[in-house]
Amino acid sequence: MKEVAVLPPPNPEEVQQTLAGRSAEVEERVRAAYARTLEPLFRAGLAVAAVGGFGRRELFPHSDIDLLLLAESDKSLPPRENISAFLQGLWDSGLRPSHSVHSVADCVTEHEDNAEFTISLLDRRLLAGDAALYQSLEDKFRQFQTRRGASLARQIAGLAEGRRAKYQNTIYHLEPNVKETPGGLRDLQTTRWLLMLEPREGTPDLSAAFSFLSGDRLRLHELAGRDQNALSFDAQESLSDHPAVLMRDYYRHARVVDQAVRQALEVSTEKAGTLLGRFHEWRSRLSTSDFTVSRDRVLLRAHKPPQDLSLFEFVARHGLRLAPDTIERLHGFTPETKWDDWKRMLSLPKASLGLRAMQESGVLPNALPEWRNIECLVVRDFYHRYTVDEHTLVAIGSLESVTDGRFTELMSEIENPWLLRFALLMHDIGKGSGRDHTVASVEIAQAVMERLGAPEADRETIEFLVLRHLDLSSVMSSRDLYDGSTARALADRVGTQERLKLLAMLTYADISAVNPQAMTPWRMEQLWRVYLMAYEELTRELVTERIHDAAGMPAERARFLEGLPTRYLRTHAAEEVDAHFTLAQQLASRPVAVEIQHERGFYKLTLLTRDRPALFASVAGAISSFGLNILKAEAFSNSSGMVLDTFTFADPHRTLELNPPEVDRLRGVVRKVVEGKQEADKLLRGRPKPFLSSRMKLRPRVSFKDDASDGATLIEIVSEDRPGLLYDLANAISLAGCNIEVVMIDTEAHKALDVFYVTHQGHKLGDQLQSELKSELLAACIGSR
Amino acid sequence: MKRIEAIIQPHKLEDAKEALKNIGVDGMTITEVRGHGRQKGHTEVYRGMEYKVDLLPKVKLELVVGDARADEVIRTLVTAARTGKIGDGKIFVYEVADAVRIRNDDRGDAAL
Q1: Do A718 and B33 touch (CB under 8 A)?
Q2: Structural domain count of chain B
Q3: How many domains does chain A have?
Q4: For chain B, how far is it from start to end, CA to CA, in angstroms?
Q5: Does the global pTM surpass 0.90?
């Protein structure tokens, strides 16, 4: 292997001096060659000028020397052999001149097919020859620039966009090219040109980025002995003892350049009035008393942003971006955030844009100092395309562009998307600590949530997700998915279907954000199989896994728990179990115990009683008869025949809220139907027929599974939700003479997801009964029973 | 020389690689593939929605060895990748006419 000395890191002054020194030296040689060869022949009517990088005095050891030979007119161009003699001398001294011969008129004409030439003239200076001639170019070019500046800017922008597209518009390349890749020197120069042609306020400071990138380019040239600008793995190792640190710095600077060039490109391209532009203007109607929206960019009305996250929430709600002026005003801004602020923003469908805006304006690390751990942190392997912070934001963004139908459906079933998004925000935050990053991430997440005041239940879920975020990937690649024990072990670790869904979507996002090609159909299929396997195991467990001999419990308590599904303990907090146990004590003196609580905009009814036929349907009917909308329900029974039903419902007409006595009446009616003193059917007779839209989005689906448990048949129903749906479904099951053993009901938006475990005379349902019940249930779904 | 192509269950890849390493075989090409054989196309039901699974994820392992080693490699792969269930996969063996190492023109077994 070739030995290479590790070169010292660049120092801004040194970089500047080296570039200028090299320019001056080359300049001398060009002048000398000109004096020797052309000057004696053309006392007037010819001049030589430095253009491009040479014109800017930014000459790298092995870059081309851009020269313009300026003639008075096309008729007075110098003969070819004279030019050859001039260039020969330069070539012989080891330079690589790249020249062009043009008349003044030619220089101020637009060249559709050679915009690069006109662009190179933006950085021009006289080296030798006819000064008066050069002055006429100066004057004419200035007029040309005033006249055609906007058009030239569009050409520059077009070239930059084409080049950036070749690199997928991202600065994140493992082996970037310091000149060409987005965020590189070419982008930096593009920004300068665009600002030169269309000056505006708030010019970004690119000097640090320039020194860094130029320093790297200088050393790359020295290292390779030619015009080599790729920071390959080998080069990274030659340039630094700590390549990961070098690259972290590289991305930090490239990001500044990338942001600046994107803003500049936006300004130049947006000038052209288009239909799309008019649509964007129309969105200015989104403006509020705090924010103005213009061309999809958010501007602040007040001088300072609101103290909380409402600006970013606004961005996330409407899918917008911050205006350059807003970003400037956010400089150094530290919002005061509480858990609810994050929760609100992260619940929105375009949450990733809110986070992007926070990152772009530098607010994210101020609001979440732990974010600094992973800023521009490089993972050096062949798979990870992005730095850790970028990976995190790409992952959150990937939830917004899920294309596979199965995962789209899964995503829509997630009740608390903010938990998923916050877990993703934290999942790699412990990277770079030198320890197992999952453990380090959990510790950091705990501290963050403690500070933000997250409630216990949210904290537990997020800690679980962060700690387990690699579990599904590991099962995907190293476990036999057809082996029952794999499913059981996974179901055991995950605990509930709710958590499984969160974990599956988190894994989906995490894999998708490794690099743009990482989520192959192969991986997607594997992930889905893992999800499905664990999902079915957890559904099966609803009836098969029962609490038995609850350890360390007083006898009374153990009797209460005996035979309830293990899901009961997994999904209820200790206080809830306490409350249920206390309610159960009432059953000693009365047949029914009912409690109704109002919490966070919903009502929750808890019912304990002895089991009897059609119990679940009757209670669902009683609740619906009050015009209440059931969102969730669970029905469990223990070994001694006690039934524990819980119903969560909304009060769309504010019946209970505006008439507190109605709560007591509801409690009374529920008691009566349970005791058989009132019939749910009669209560419901007066209710208006549900309005059924003909464009019902969801085709109802009913499926039966016999192998899900030893003693009961599983019925799974997915349907468009509507008032009274649960009563109609449960009633259909009861009318068929079936007993409902376990129920789990959920609603996501307009979609009802119902799972019933059902027996008929103590056994599974026969084929005949299944097919009859299926048509009854399908009819119930569309309300035509 | 033989080219050995093994299509195996994804979770058996590590075992197979390890077993090959133990008999001194390090070089191979690994591809993530999807396909089906007798364990083919079945329908799965998720939330009442039936969807057809006709392509199952598998891993394809390819290597070229000298004739003398082919049987040993095949036996090793079979042992490492077997679970005894449908879907364990298959091994195909092809004759290879020649091999050339681009770096130095090595030919035949020497190029492996």
Answers
A1: no
A2: 1
A3: 2
A4: 9
A5: no
